[in-house]
Amino acid sequence: MEINEAISKYFTYLIAEKGLTKNTIDSYQEDLKFFFKSFDDIKDTSSLDESLLEEWAIYEGEKGLSPSSIARRLSSVKGFFLFLTKEGINKISINKTPFPKKKKTLPVVLTSEELSSLLNSIDINKKGGERDLAMILFMYSTGVRVSELLSLKLDDVSFSKRIVLIRSGKGSKQRSVPINELSLNTLNNYIKGERKENVGKKSPFLFLNKFGKPISRNYFFLLIKKYAKKANINKNIHPHTLRHSFATSLLENGANLIAVKEMLGHSHLETTQIYTNVSSKTIKKDYEKVFSKSKK
Q: Has residue 293 got a pLDDT over 60?
């Protein structure tokens, strides 16, 4: 359904069934206008995804909007998303999308040691181990969104070119991202090993559960939590932490900000720039760790 048609249906619903006042309706309209102005390439409801909310919140925060204003605008957009789900227009799971709690909170990222611990906590000899290692390493190595990772298909990965085609990016945009040899080898081991024995081995989707179906978001979320606990990582991490860590690692090692923006599939450079703050913070910590010794 076209965005304009969906919005029209939504406000008809708010007036007819919810009986909201004109001032409240005007406020909702203004919030939705700001949201779709930021993603003006999105013309159809099928292109909407809950991860848009996080990117938009970061973008609005970087522009200087207060946390309370961001929370109000997010509430309006969430209401629209819930309506789309309720009416069967587009199912969007937004239960875990957080409201901003403080201004310009920096994303949580993993150190190289923590990442190694996370990967080493996965036993590839256990059922699901090869897949789990391939998924987590893939997400860290490419910086893809959770929705993009879980909707990947076998033919989206070019082993010869070391390129992954992301077909389900925001706004129905496609992009290509590089992938390193270690991640490709791990992925190849999963495809030729565990996946080959899966009941859904003929499925076009890359990552499958034990029933041969694509992995769900909730399952992957719990998977990350399980391995983080096993690795004794004392941070509140989730799947998106791998994406944050990917971007921060690139910038710490001198990657171009524009190139990182393109790899992440961000619509706005301001969204990517938050990782420069994380990178600077890490560099400062390393600097102080070294030079504080010289004071003694």
A: no
pTM of the model: 0.63
Q: Which of 72-86, 160-174, 190-204, 222-236 has the highest mean pLDDT?
A: 190-204
A 10 A CB-CB count for 51 gives: 18
Q: Among residues 73, 195, 243, 244, which one is catalytic?
A: 243
Is there a catalytic annotation at residue 238? no
Taking residue 25's Cβ as centre, other Cβ atoms within 10 Å add up to 14
Residue 56: domain span: 3-86
Indicate which CATH number applies to the domain containing 223.
1.10.443.10
pLDDT in tens, 31-42: 898 888 877 767
Whether 72 is a known active-site residue: answer no
pLDDT in tens, 43-98: 888 878 777 787 777 767 756 677 788 888 888 888 888 888 888 888 777 655 55
34 and 80 both lie in a single domain: yes
Closest C-alpha to 147, from 54, 284, 38 = 54
Set 145, 195, 244, 261: catalytic member:
145
- Considering the domain architecture, whether residues 156 and 263 belong to the same structural domain is answered as yes
Instruction: Say whether 175 is catalytic.
Output: no
- 205 with 152: CB under 8 angstroms? yes
227 is catalytic: no
Catalytic, 243? Answer yes
Query: Are 116 and 39 part of one and the same domain?
Result: no
Q: Is residue 212 located within the same domain as residue 82?
A: no
- Known catalytic membership, residue 170: yes
Rg, Å, the chain Cα set = 21
Question: Looking at 167, 217, 240, 268, which residue is catalytic?
Answer: 240
Catalytic one of 170, 195, 244, 261: 170
Q: How many CB atoms lie within 10 A of CB 89?
A: 18
Give the chain's domain count.
2
Contact 273, 62 (CB under 8 A): yes
